[in-house]
Amino acid sequence: MYRKGEVSYQPLSLPDRVQLEPEASLKAAEDFLAYMKKRHSVRDYSPRPVASEVIAACIAAAGTAPSGANHQPWHFVAISDPAMKARIREGAEEEERAFYQGGAGDEWLAALEPIGTGVSKPHLTDAPWLIVVFAQRYGMTTDGTRYKNYYVPESVGIATGMLIAAIHHAGLVCLEHTPNPMKFLGPLCGRPDHEKPVMILPVGYPAERSTVPAVAKRKKPLSEIMTLFSG
User: Fold this and answer.
1) Dihedral sign from CA coordinates of 199, 205, 210, 211
2) Quick check: 36 and 165 in contact, CB under 8 A?
3) Domains of the chain: which residue ranges?
4) Which CATH superfamily is domain 50-205 in?
5) Is 64 helix (H, G, I), strand (E, B) or coil?
6) Distance of CA 99 to CAs 107, 122, 179, Å?
7) How far, in Å, CA of 47 to CA of 32, rounded?
């Protein structure tokens, strides 16, 4: 994290070592793959409550993500207040309405057809929690001095991925919801102008009759997503 006046490099001995022997390493990687295959983006939520401590621990895990120059250009707003969730749903559906009534091209709408999305976003009020992810275009020191952040989209993307993994690890589900634009979220969440909302994550337990689109289970084979140059 940037602090004014800290401009020198000070090496620190690696504080934690979690490395495994080759066989154990392969098993751990394969076990993690199998576990992550059980993660699903869910639109149907149970009213079952989730403790705020669980949400806080997941966000804290996201906060350990690497970032450009270690500036950590993110902020997470966790919301369980029903009135705020209703306002967010109202704003999101207003933007989705414009999207589906001409804001999106035919190709984009055709791509979304197998996912089964539409204007109505009940998950934004049904889920016990919403986590709004903000990206900080630039940072501010405690004395109000503005400083540049680096690799903001990449950094926030890594942190959000870690948040999604942490939510899954906590036995919960979420949905990656990205209405665009989302300008109403900043004032509603009390965030400054230099923070841009990039995602809303409804978080909770899946409803008893929760479903996922069949197409969501189609993943590209490893041969299509990896190129290997071995020595």
Assistant:
1) positive
2) yes
3) 50-205
4) NADH Oxidase (3.40.109.10)
5) coil
6) 13, 17, 9
7) 29
- Phi and psi, residue 179, nearest 5°: -65, 145
Q: What are the pLDDT tens digits along the chain (231 aa)?
A: 777 777 788 999 999 999 999 999 999 999 999 999 999 999 999 999 999 999 999 999 999 999 999 999 999 999 999 999 999 999 999 988 888 887 777 887 888 888 888 899 999 999 999 999 999 999 988 888 899 999 999 999 999 999 999 999 999 999 999 988 889 999 999 999 999 999 999 999 999 999 999 999 999 999 999 999 998
Residue 197, C-beta contacts closer than 8 angstroms, at least 6 positions apart: 132, 133, 134, 182, 183, 185, 186, 189, 191
Report the alpha-carbon distance of residue 86 to residue 209 in Å, rounded.
23
- Which amino acid belongs to residue 35? Y
